[in-house]
Structures are given as C-alpha cells and as structure tokens.
Specification:
mainly alpha; 71% helix
Length: 112
C-alpha cells in the first residue's frame, strides 16, 4: 500500500470513529431524557437538533460542543429575542429525536 492510500485508509478509520463517538454522545443524552421520563426542553431541543444537523453533515467534531450546550442552559447574556425564541420553540419528543438520529446514523457515505 502506498503512502497516500495508507493516509486515506487512516482518515476513513478516524472518520468512522468520530462518527461513532458523535452518535453515542447524542444517544447518551437521549437515554438520560428517557430515564428521567421527560422530553427535552426547548433549549435542549434546539441544541440537539443542531447536533443532529452537524452529525448529518459529517461535522462530527462539533457535535460534542452542541451537546454540551444542550446540557447547560445558560441564557444569561443572550439577546432577549433569542431567549424568547428558545423558550417558545417547538419541543420535539425524545422518541422523534432518537428516530432521527437512527435514520441519519444508518445512512452510510460511500467513499470516492
């Protein structure tokens, strides 16, 4: 195997690991909501949706940050219009978010 093929193989492996970790991170949060027998708050919903969009786009490294924000609802310092939007946005049931994650995670990108 030449050097470029080795690098490509290594990059694919690292991408697969990052994808798995990102999916597990979202799943752990959804599991916690399930254990607490509740759906996510509007704040949590907005950041979980953001994490799912990042996951779907293949930006796995940024999923952790979005999930960290979902867990820490700090609204102090945000403009009032943003806070209002976050507290009055639609709340998605945990089951819907989990189904969305599974649908996205089941999709495999075929390498070039």
């Amino acid at each position: 195997m030449d050097d470029s093929a080795s690098r490509t193989s290594h990059q694919r492996a690292m991408n697969a690991v990052a994808r798995r970790h990102a999916a597990q991170r979202i799943e752990r949060f959804l599991d916690r909501l399930h254990r607490e027998a509740r759906d996510p708050s509007p704040w949590e919903t907005s950041f979980i949706e953001h994490a799912l969009l990042l996951f779907e786009a293949g930006s796995y490294i940024f999923v952790e940050d979005a999930m960290r924000q979902a867990e820490n609802p700090v609204t102090r310092g945000l403009p009032a219009v943003i806070t209002t939007l976050l507290t009055h946005s639609n709340v998605m049931p945990t089951a819907v978010l989990r189904a969305r994650l599974r649908r996205i995670a089941a999709f495999k990108v075929v390498p070039n």
